[in-house]
Structure formats: C-alpha cells, structure tokens
Amino acid sequence: MTFLTWFLMKWDDFLRINSKGSLYEVILGLLLIAGNLIRNLALTNSFGIFDMLIMLVGLYFIFFGLKTTRFFMPLIAYTIILLIGYQLEFILEQVKVLEYFLAGLMGSLLNGLNITNWVAGNVVIMIDSAGETHNLIIDGPCTGIKGMLAYGSLAALLVLDAKSSMKKKAIATSVGLLGTLLVNILRLVIIFLAVYFLGIEVGLMIHTYLGYGLFILWIISFWSLAFKYLAPLTQSQVYKA
Questions:
Q1: What's the rounded Cα separation, in Å, for the pair 178 and 148?
Q2: Using CA atoms, how far apart are residues 40 and 54, in angstroms rounded to an integer?
Q3: Parallel, antiparallel, or unpaired for β 123-127 and 133-137?
Q4: Neighbouring residues of 231: CB distance < 8 A, sequence distance ≥ 6
Q5: Where on the phi/psi map is residue 117: left (φ > 0), alpha (ψ -120 to 50), or beta?
Q6: CA atoms of 226 and 212, how far apart (whole Å)
Q7: Helix (H/G/I), strand (E/B), else coil: 116
Q8: Engineering a disulfide at 162: which of 50, 143, 221, 230 sits with its beta carbon 3.0 to 4.6 angstroms away?
Q9: For 50-78, what is each residue's pLDDT tens digit?
Q10: Which residues, including other chains, have CB under 8 Å from residue 221's CB and lie 6 or more apart?
Q11: Distance (Å, rounded) from C-alpha 217 to C-alpha 236?
C-alpha cells in the first residue's frame, strides 16, 4: 500500500521516465529476481520486505536501467529503514524506555477517563467495562518504532526531494515526523478503549489491522497537504501576494 501510494504521488514523474534498461541491465535484473525466488523456495518459502526490495530493484533494472536509481531511491530507503526498524525494536535499550513511556501515557489517559488501571513497567493492567481484568503489554512492536522510522523517514525523504526553501522543508519534515508519532499514540488509545468497551477479542483484531490503515491515511493526508505547502508559487500567485 505504501508503494502504491508513493507511485500515485509521483505518477506524473514516473510517466516521464524515458530511459530503458540495456541488455546487461535486463540480464542482471532477471538474475536478481530469479535468484531471490529460488532462495525463497529453497529456504523460507515466504515473501517479505527484503524480497520486495529485490523485486523493486530487479524490475527497474529491467525496464528503466540503473540510471533511474535516484528516482526510486525513496522506496529503496523506505524498505531498508523498515528492515532496520524490525531489528531495532528488539535490540535498542531506548525502545524499552519508549515502552515504559507509552505504558505510563496510556495509564494517565485511562485515569483521565476514570478507567481503573495500574501500570507496571510496560504493562497496563486494566479493568474493562464488564469487570474483567486484562494485562495489556506494550512491547517493541507496539511502540510503533517501525512506523515512525519507515513512514516518517519516507515522508521526510519526499519532502526533501521537493523544490522549496529549506525553511519550508524543515517545517514540513518536523510536522511529518511528529504526526507519525501522534498517529501511533492514537492507535494505542483506540486499542485500549476497544478492549475496555468491546472486549479483548475486538481489541486484538483492531491491534492487528488498525495501525496500517491509520499510518496510510496519515501519509496520504500529509503528502497531499505538504506538497501543496511546498509547491513553488505561480506567477499569478506572486502577483496577488
């Protein structure tokens, strides 16, 4: 979905690509894709983020050639950052601090809504509306670090690629990164309230799917507003100003 969203935003630029892959680039692209598929069938029998990266590189090698790497760099950077994010959420000590911070924040928000809860480290012990007690753990994946790294970095990369002043780029990038953090907090609030009012099963279902939907909606909204903000003024707009 993120790839598709990026292509929608860059569609006009994509259509203007007029280069083609040479014979050697076509062969290299085919070898990359075929080699990765063979590796998957032999070892993992799955398709993940690394495979998306190899497919992306192989396909643009075949159709457009190596010289278009700069155009596709935001997607390449996005997948690499996402791969790094999957590792960082388990090994960085700072992620543990973020877990405790978010657990404390959720506890404070629940207290503000008069919902009985206790916080122990990264665990929020909450009594739902039916009187049942739930131990809700905010671990590495729940911190949203992958979303903050991947979606936030992709937003920043596209903003930095825009033709605008450094001041506007800095403002737009800051808003993008802060918004990504707030979206993750909103996701947690919705999950906790769903568990409280609708039960643990509904909460778990929302936990599984809500994050992706919220992040994609946020990125689409952010890009749309950011590109309008960063777009250079036309002559008529300058005259009116």
A1: 9
A2: 12
A3: antiparallel
A4: 162, 164
A5: beta
A6: 21
A7: coil
A8: 230
A9: 899 999 999 999 999 999 998 998 888 87
A10: none
A11: 32
Closest Cα partner for 117 from 210, 207, 189? 189
SS3 content of the chain, % helix, strand, coil (to 5): 80, 5, 15
Farthest CA pair distance, the chain: 68
Q: What three-state secondary structure class fits 70? A: helix
For residues 78 and 154, what is the distance between their CA atoms, to the nearest angstrom?
6
Which pTM value belongs to this model? 0.67
Token digits of residue 20:
């083609």
The 10s digit of each residue's pLDDT in 105-158 is 999 999 999 999 999 988 999 999 989 999 998 876 667 666 666 666 666 666
* CA contacts within 13 A on the Cβ side of 48: 12
DSSP bridge pairs for 118? 125
Rounded distance between C-alpha atoms, residue 136 and residue 192, angstroms = 8
Our measurement of the distance from residue 234's CA atom to the centroid of its chain's CA atoms, rounded to an integer in Å, reads 32
3-state secondary structure 172-196: HHHHHHHHHHHHHHHHHHHHHHHHH
Residue 137's beta-bridge partner residues?
123
| SS3 (DSSP) at 97 | helix
